[in-house]
Amino acid sequence: MDLAAALHDDALAAVLGRLPARSLAASRRVCKAWRDLVDDRHGQLLLRLRILLPHAVCGIFVNYQDHGKPHFFARPAAATAAGPRIDGEFDFIDDQKRMWRWSRVLDHNNGLVLYTDDDLRNGSFFVCNPVTRRWKCLPRCPSGDEWRWHLHAFLVFHPAVSKHYRVLLVSRKPKKEVDGAEWPPSRWRCHEFSSRTGRWQEKVFVREGEAAGTIANLTMDYLPYSMEPRWRFSAYWQGNLYVHCHGEYVARMSLSDATYRVIKSPIDRTVCYSDVKSFLGRSEKGVYFVAIYKWQLRVWILDTGSSPYRAEWVLKHNRVLKPDDCYLSLIPVL
C-alpha cells in the first residue's frame, strides 16, 4: 500500500511543509498529485518554496550609450551553473514586434526584465524572462502618449506574492513648470499596467508628509555622467516601490493604498549638482543608497524600523577607492 497516497491532503501538506527548500522543490517531481499539492495548496507551500530557495546574482545587464543593444555579462562558471544561456540582446523577441533598431533595459525585478526598443517616446514595452525566453509585448498606454517623454517606467514583480507583474509609468516632471509649485505634487498622477487585467489605468498616489521642495530649487535635468534622466534606479521592497529621484530624494510609493512619502537623500542636495554619482538598489536586508564622489564610496541602508513613518539612512560602508576601482564602480550591483 502507498502510505503517502493514504494520507489526507492536510496531513501530507504538513509533512511536505517541514522539508528544506531543495527537498520541497524535489518533491514536486515525485508525481502529479504531489506537484499539484505543492502548487495549489492555498499557495502556502509554493510561497515558502519561492522564499527559501537561494537567490544568486548570475550576471548583469549593461546598456550602452553608443551601441544599439544591451548585453549580459557573467562569469563563464556562473553562466554554466545558472542553466540555459541568457540572451542579453533579447534576440528571441519577434522582430515583427520591434519598431526600432535601438533598444535597452529599463528595469528589472526578481527575474523579469522590462525592455524597450528605441525610447519612451515611440518604442514598445516588453516584459521578458531572459532564462525561459518568454516575453510579452505590452499594449500602448493610451492616455500617456502625449507626454510619454516625461515618464519613467518601473517594473514590479514578486513571485512569492503573485505570479502577476505591474509596470508603473511615473511622471518625473510636471507638464508645465511653475517655479513656486511643490514637487512632487500632493496628488501624483501615474499610469499602471497589470498583467492580471492586461490593461493600463490611471493611478493617483496621494502624498503623505512634505514635498521634496519646489520646482525652482530641484534638479530636473540630466545626470552629468549619464545620457539618461536622473531617475534610472528603483527598488521594490516589502510592497513599496522606492524611486531614486535625481539623487536629491527617494519616493516611497505604496502600491497597496496608493500613497507615497518623500524620503530625504543621505547626501547633501548641493552635491547632486556636482560629479557625485548616486544609485538606489535592493539587497537581502533592504534598500540601499550608494554614492561615489571622486575616490570615496559610501553605502547606506534604509532603516524603517516598525513604523511606516520612520525612514533613516544608516551608513554601512565608507572607504576610499583605488584609482582603477573608481572607473569600474559607475554601476554598483546590489
Automatic annotation (TrEMBL):
Transmembrane spans: none
Q: What is this protein called?
A: F-box domain-containing protein
Matching entries from InterPro entries are given as: Beta-prop_At3g26010-like, F-box-like_dom_sf, F-box_dom
Segments forming domain F-box: 7-46
Give the matching PANTHER family: F-BOX DOMAIN-CONTAINING PROTEIN, OS03G0653100 PROTEIN-RELATED
Origin, by domain of life? Eukaryota
